[in-house]
Amino acid sequence: MEERPPAEVRTRRLVLQKPQPADEDALLAIWTDPAYAFFALSGPATRADVHQWLAGPTRWVALLGDDVVGMVQLEVDAAERTAALGYGLARQYRGLGLATEAARAVVDVGFGPLGLARIWARADPHNLASVRVLEKLGMRREGLLRQHVVRRGERVDRVYYGLLRAEWQRAAERTTSVRALIRLARDEDYGPVCALFAEGDAFHAAARPDVIRVPQGPARSREFMEHVLSSRDDLLLVAEQNGRLVGLIRAAVRMAPDAPMVVPRRYIAIEELVVTESARRRGYAPALVEQVHDWARERDIRDVQLTVHEFNTGAVRVYERLGYATVSRQMRRLLP
C-alpha cells in the first residue's frame, strides 16, 4: 500500500472515522439485528466479535451527526494490492443511500491513498439491497459460487462483484466531467429546452399513441418556462456538451394530498428527464438525477418520487441503479 489509511473520511452526509471503544454498543446493536445477521453472519454476534473488529486497520464507523449508523471496511491483501469491501447499516437508516455513500468513499480511499489495483465484494444474491449498492459503485458481477457458505443451517450461494483501478478511474473522470457540465436552465435556453422536451414527447407518443400525443407548436410555452425558472419549488437543470444542450431534468417540491388517511409530508417529484439520443450512455441521466438529490437535501427532503412507463426500460434501469424501487403500480384495462 502507498499510504496509511486515513483516520477520518468525510462525505456529503457522513463522517467515517476510526472505530473507538465507545462505538462498541452501537455496533453490537447492528450486528445483533436479525435483519443484518440474516445475510451477513454465520452465527450469533458477540461483544467479543465486535471488539475484535474494532482493532482492524482499515475499518471505519459511519457517523450521521453524533449517531453511529453503520460501519465499512476493507480487508486488504497488501501483497496483491487487492481488498474485500464490507459494510453494514443500522436498520432505521437503510433506504437513504447511506450505505452507497459510505462504501463509495472507502472505495475512493482504496484506489486513491492506498493504491489498490482491485476491490471486490461478495453478497447473498437474495440480498437485493446489498447487490444494488455494489452495482451503484460500478462493480461488475464476476461469478456465482453455489452453496458456498453455511448460513442459518443451510448451504447458500454467494455472488461476487469486482472493480478494477482503471474502471474506477474512468468512472471518476466521467462523473467529474459530466457533473461540471450540468447547470440551471436560463431564459435563453428556451429554444433548445423545447427541442429536448419535443424529443421526449415524441418518444413517449410513439410508444403510447393511445394516451400521449406530440403538442402542436412549441413543446412547452414560454409562460411555463418562466414559471419553472422563477419558482423556488421548481427546478430545471440542463446538461451541456460543447455548447449544445443534450439533456434536462425537471423536478418540483410537492405536498402529499390533503386527505384524512394520508400522512402529511413533502416530497420531490421528478417530472421529466430527457437525454438526446446521441448523448445517451455517457452518464448524463444519472448525473442529472443526482443533482436533483442534492437539491432535495438542501431543502431537507429525503423522499424523491417519479413515474416511469413500463416500456421505457432504459430509464427503469437508470433509476434502479440509483436505488429507486417500485412502490405502487398503475393498472389499466380497456373494455370491449
What does it look like?
This protein is an alpha+beta fold. It has helices at 24-31, 34-40, 47-54, 98-111, 128-136, 165-180, 190-207, 222-230, 284-298, 313-321; strands at residues 8-10, 15-17, 59-64, 67-77, 82-89, 118-123, 140-151, 154-164, 182-184, 234-241, 244-255, 266-275, 304-306. The strands form two sheets. It has an eight-stranded mixed beta sheet, with helices on both faces. Strands 9-10-11-12-13 form a five-stranded mixed beta sheet, sandwiched between helices. A hairpin with a 4-residue loop joins strand 4 (67-77) and strand 5 (82-89). Helix 1 crosses helix 3.
Question: Summary?
Answer:
With 336 residues, the protein is an alpha+beta fold. It has helices spanning 24-31, 34-40, 47-54, 98-111, 128-136, 165-180, 190-207, 222-230, 284-298, 313-321, and strands spanning 8-10, 15-17, 59-64, 67-77, 82-89, 118-123, 140-151, 154-164, 182-184, 234-241, 244-255, 266-275, 304-306.
